[in-house]
Amino acid sequence: DAGVTQSPTHLIKTRGQQVTLRCSPKSGHDTVSWYQQALGQGPQFIFQYYEEEERQRGNFPDRFSGHQFPNYSSELNVNALLLGDSALYLCASSLVGSTTYNEQFFGPGTRLTVL
Amino acid sequence: GQQVMQIPQYQHVQEGEDFTTYCNSSTTLSNIQWYKQRPGGHPVFLIQLVKSGEVKKQKRLTFQFGEAKKNSSLHITATQTTDVGTYFCAGASGSARQLTFGSGTQLTVLP
Fold this sequence. Notes:
The complex is a heterodimer. In chain A, 0% of the residues lie in helices and 50% in strands. Chain A is built from no helices and 11 strands. In chain A, the strands form 2 sheets. In chain A, strands 2, 4, 5, 6, 9, 10 and 11 form a 7-stranded mixed sheet that branches. The N and C termini of chain A lie far apart (37 Å). Chain B is mainly beta. Chain B is built from no helices and 11 strands. In chain B, the strands form 2 sheets. In chain B, strands 2, 4, 5, 9, 10 and 11 form a 6-stranded mixed sheet that branches. Chain B starts with a strand and ends with a strand. Classes of the chains: A mainly beta, B mainly beta. At the A-B interface, β5 and β10 of A face β4, β5, β9 and β10 of B.
C-alpha cells in the first residue's frame, strides 16, 4: 500500500520564476491538502482539493494555485517566486468524512529554495 | 483568524523523565489532532480527539482535550530516546476543512 508520494524532493529556483510541485495521495484517499512549513515552524495550510475543486483555502496569495486530477493526484503551482517562499512544501491526503476532520497522511515533502 | 499556540517551544529531558506539551486555541475546536515530526522527516499522525474532556492513551502517551474544547495536552511518561522529535497539535473549527497547526514543541531526550 503506497503512501503519499511527492516530487521532486528538492528544488532550487530564482526569484520571479514559477514552480510546480506534484503529489500522489495514499491509495484510497480522495482529498489532498497542501501545507507550507518554514524552518522551525508548524505547517501552514495553503488549500485543499476534493473532487477536482479547491474547497478550502488558507491565507496565501493568488500566486499559489493548484489542481487535482481525476486520479486524485494534485499539483501546487507557485508563480513569481519570492525569497520568502523558501520552505518545505508538504502534501497530505485523507478520505473525506462526514463531520470530523480526518487523519492526514503526509508525504515526505518538497524542499524549495528560492535564490 | 484561528490561532493555535503551543508551549513550551523547546524541552530537554533526561531519559526516563516525563514530558508534557500544551496547546491552546483562540477559538473553540471541533476536534484536535496531534502529530510527531522526527528531524528531517514529515509529520506523522498520532491521534485525534473530538469530545469535550476526552482522554486517550497510547502506551506511554496520554492525550487530553479540554472541557471547553479550546485546549489540549500531550503527556509522555518515562521518555525514551525514540521520543525525540517535534510534537504538533492541529485544530479544526466548525465545519472548516482547514487544520491550523501550533508551532510545535521540540523534544530532546538526553541518554
